[in-house]
Write a structure and sequence with these properties.
The protein is an alpha+beta fold and 417 residues long. The chain has 7 helices and 17 strands. The strands form 5 sheets. A 7-stranded mixed beta sheet has the order 4-13-12-11-10-8-5, with helices on both faces. The chain has a 4-stranded mixed beta sheet with strand order 6-7-3-9, covered by helices on one side. Strand 11 and strand 12 form a beta hairpin. It is found in: Mitochondrion.
Length: 417
């Protein structure tokens, strides 16, 4: 007999269930089929002066008696399967003053404004003139680059496999790796590019004091392009001194530490992820991806804030290694680039670290140049989108913008031209 033909009855709680036993409806919950799910039994409360009566002596469960609380069995040796961390107060690295931690999953509510305040940075719109000169100079252009970029986009978005339209989690990493491979093939034309190293999942640790709080950047840094020689500063000495007059925007009523993880067990250390003697110790470009196609993905402003934090962390860790922990205004600024993408739109950023004195609002500030929301293509579809017999979006790669790749290539080539 079909489930719809079984007579139903409404109970006092408003739950519909079947009268006939043995009928299963897998598409609805158990409560609708009249199955009783016992609630989770709560632990007996502790009352001072009273000892609970348990079923420990009987060695089996007895309804109405409290559950015994047995002591942990000491095996005499450390078993990692049953390891239990001690309370935070008993850990070696526990500190009373909390630190606010930024990692790759943090999405700053304040966006770029919050990242600028945390890093004491002045924002300049557009890329530096040195990089724009590389974009416009035909000597540095890749021959037939439009067709090559078109093939990279098609390989990531269309040629992955036959079937449905690919999701961002699939084509975003493949597109970035394809563009990097296209740039790496120019090593024979520009020999200085061979003095680079592309590292994946490079770990980063950086710590600094901002006013009366401690902030840290820790975790995996994504793709990191490192070089044998550091990038030369973009801003001149007069431009650096002119940042003293710049005033940072206030985040009121937001807290500067909003959306950062508060921890009491931490260590203040600075590590760029390179061991001593590594031939490519200088960070060049940090590549940041947002391959999430759900609502958990980053907003464009949050992705740009993440780029600022990771670029600042890489520059700060390198500066601590070169100039020590007590350095204030750097004698030689540190320059780190960053490129972020969600698989279609690109954000370009150049960060120059001028000072390590972030306690006060006065003095020299860091500088960042940003060029955001640059589309590489407008659409890439396996099947055309047709509505009322009118093709709204054709199949294939449409709206390719080679100017975006020129900026990508100019930032990759920067320092080797």
């Amino acid at each position: 007999m079909a489930a719809s033909m079984v007579p139903r009855r409404m109970c006092g709680a408003g739950v519909i269930f079947h009268l006939k036993c043995g009928v299963r409806c897998l598409s609805v919950s158990a409560a609708r089929n009249g199955k009783f799910i016992p609630p989770v039994r709560a632990e007996a409360p502790e009352i001072p002066g009273l000892e609970p009566i348990t079923y420990a002596d009987r060695m089996y469960y007895v309804p109405g008696l409290a559950r015994p609380r047995n002591t942990d069995w000491d095996r005499g040796w450390s078993d990692p399967r049953y390891y239990r961390a001690p309370p935070p107060e008993q850990m070696k690295l526990f500190r009373e003053q909390p630190a606010y931690l930024f990692h790759r999953s943090c999405r700053l509510l304040g966006g770029v404004k919050q990242a600028l305040w945390l890093t004491k940075t002045k924002l300049n719109n557009g890329l530096p003139q040195r990089i724009m000169d590389i974009c416009e100079d035909p000597v540095y252009q890749i021959p037939n680059h439009e067709e090559l970029v078109h093939n990279v986009v098609a390989n990531a978005c269309l040629w992955h496999r036959p079937g449905d339209q690919p999701i961002r989690e699939e084509y975003c990493p493949k597109l970035l790796q394809g563009l990097l491979h296209l740039c790496q093939k120019q090593n024979n034309k520009f020999p200085a590019l061979s003095q680079r190293s592309l590292v994946e999942n490079c770990r980063l640790a950086a710590s600094w004091h901002r006013e009366s709080s401690i902030y840290q950047v820790r975790g995996i840094n994504g793709f990191l392009l490192s070089s044998k020689n550091p990038l030369k500063p973009v801003a001149s000495e007069s431009e650096i001194q002119a940042t003293k007059e710049h005033r940072l925007e206030s985040l009121y009523p937001l807290s500067p530490a909003i959306d950062l993880q508060e921890v009491n067990v931490y260590e203040e250390r600075n590590d760029a992820g390179f061991r001593p003697g590594y031939p490519f110790p200088h960070p060049h470009t940090v590549f940041v991806m947002d391959p999430c196609s759900t609502r958990a993905g980053f907003l464009p402003d949050q992705l740009r804030a993440k780029m600022i934090m990771l670029a600042y962390g890489s520059a700060l860790a390198k500066a601590r290694n070169l100039f020590g922990e007590d350095a204030k205004v750097l004698p030689e600024p540190i320059l780190v680039q960053s490129i972020g993408t969600d698989g279609q739109h690109f954000h370009f950023l150049v960060f120059q670290l001028n000072t390590l004195d972030l306690v006060s609002e006065d003095g020299v500030k860091n500088i960042v140049w940003m060029d955001s929301d640059q589309s590489l293509y407008s659409s890439a579809r396996l099947v055309a989108k047709v509505k009322r017999k009118i093709v709204e979006v054709p199949a294939g790669v449409c709206g390719l913008q080679p100017e975006t790749f020129k900026k990508f290539w100019a930032m990759y080539l920067h320092g080797a031209n």
